[in-house]
Design a protein that fits this description.
The chain is an alpha+beta fold. The chain has 2 domains: 174 residues, no CATH class; 63 residues, no CATH class. Helix content is 19%, strand content 38%. It contains 5 helices and 17 strands. β15 and β16 form a beta hairpin. It is elongated, with a radius of gyration of 19 Å.
């Protein structure tokens, strides 16, 4: 990524975070758990991927499914956090993709902004699936669906969303939402060597949060919180182990 493009994206991202701080400030407040203990809500992140050019081509025979190909893509994803930390991280592209949940039933939402396009077709809010990154050719490909009702965490994108984009375009940036909500699996047995839960009692829903130290999505609360919730819902013995499904 050129220094000029990095600077432009950094300024734009920080402006978006500032404009949205009223909505996102609540994410830094403490939340009271059922047992009276306080846990601080994790910081919200936004992720940015930049490219020199790209294409958005309809997938033949599929309704509202496109192949998004970004070319001349930067080898890292930039992560910006909301206040109070204001963390900025450059995550290696493949490691970021491996640690982000692209579940087929709930992929992350993103805003694709074309930097040099007509105002009527320069931004779309999409859902991302099936990322494929090729470092050698500097290409990044997704399957995407354009959201009819834009639903990104940052309202400024929803307000500007267009229904269509050009099939071929120049410099662009992809602004990706934080991790999608998933669930925790509650189990009776200890975690086996293969990493799968056994003697499963059931699942509990959870928000998933990006941890910049591990560069991956994880459950937003502590293990003790989830173990307690599992036992409360499924009974004694079901709070022995949990499997974090935020990556799947």
């Amino acid at each position: 990524m050129s220094k000029k493009m990095f600077a432009a994206i950094a300024v734009l991202a920080m402006a978006i975070l500032t404009a949205s701080c009223g909505v996102l400030a609540e994410e830094t407040e403490e939340v009271q758990t059922d047992n009276g203990t306080a846990e601080e809500k994790p910081v919200t992140f936004m992720f940015v991927q930049s490219a020199q050019s790209g294409t958005l081509v309809p997938v033949e025979g599929e309704d509202n499914l496109y192949t998004l190909t970004l070319m001349g893509v930067a080898p890292q994803t930039i992560a910006f956090s909301d206040r109070p930390e204001r963390v900025v991280v450059q995550a290696p592209m493949q490691k970021f993709l491996d640690g982000m949940c692209f579940a087929p039933d709930n992929g992350p939402n993103a805003a694709l902004e074309i930097l040099e396009a007509d105002e009527e077709e320069d931004l779309a809010v999409v859902e991302l699936f099936d990322p494929v990154y090729d470092a050698a050719s500097q290409t990044l490909q997704y399957n995407v669906s354009i959201l009819e009702e834009p639903d990104l965490s940052y309202a400024v994108f929803n307000e500007r969303a267009d229904k269509t984009l050009p099939e071929n375009f120049g410099p662009a940036a992809l602004f990706i939402d934080d991790c999608s909500d998933r669930f925790m699996t509650c189990a009776k047995s200890a975690l086996p060597p293969d990493g799968d839960c056994s003697d499963i009692c059931g699942t509990i829903p959870t928000g998933c949060c990006w941890h910049f130290g591990d560069i991956k999505c994880m459950g937003c609360h502590s293990d003790d919180y989830y173990l307690t919730k599992c036992e409360e819902k499924y009974g004694s013995g079901c709070g022995n182990n949990i499997c974090d499904e935020c990556l799947f």
